[in-house]
Every structure is written in structure tokens, then in C-alpha cells.
Amino acid sequence: MPQWAVRGSYQARRKYWQGFTKVREAPTAEAAREQVLSEIGGSHHVPRMMIRIESVAAKEGSP
Q: 0.85 cut: is pTM over it?
């Protein structure tokens, strides 16, 4: 299954955006994006509208 690098940021405090890069195995880029939104929303209690996805790119060396 291909690996995807998902980059973005989420609002951690009122005026502070925390950056992140997560690598996920998923069949499509959209599935990887959904996994990251779900993980950040669940573990940091951030609504999806406070999460910005900047890019989803296939990781080199993945099928």
C-alpha cells in the first residue's frame, strides 16, 4: 500500500498554529487525509475546520 506524507497545521491556541507532518499508509491521498484529520481531531480535541491541510504527497519509494 502506498505511503502518503500529509503536511499542515492546526490551531493549538488562540493565535498559535502548530505545524505537523504525518506519514500514513492508505490506498488514496484522500484516505490518508481523512486518517490525519481523524487522528488530530481525536487526540488534540480540535474541530476539523481548525485543521489546515497544506499538501498530501506520495512518499518516495512507496508502490
A: yes
- The CATH label, of 3.90.180.10, 3.10.20.10, 3.40.50.10780, 3.90.1150.10, for the domain at 3-58 is 3.10.20.10
CB atoms within 10 A of CB 38: 11
Rounded CA gap, 3 and 57, in Å? Answer: 9
**What is the spatial distance between Cα 4 and Cα 30, in angstroms, rounded to a whole number?**
10
pLDDT in tens, 2-37: 999 999 999 998 889 999 999 999 999 999 999 999
Length of the chain: 63
Largest CA distance in the chain: 40
Extended strands (E) in 1-63:
3-13, 16-25, 51-58
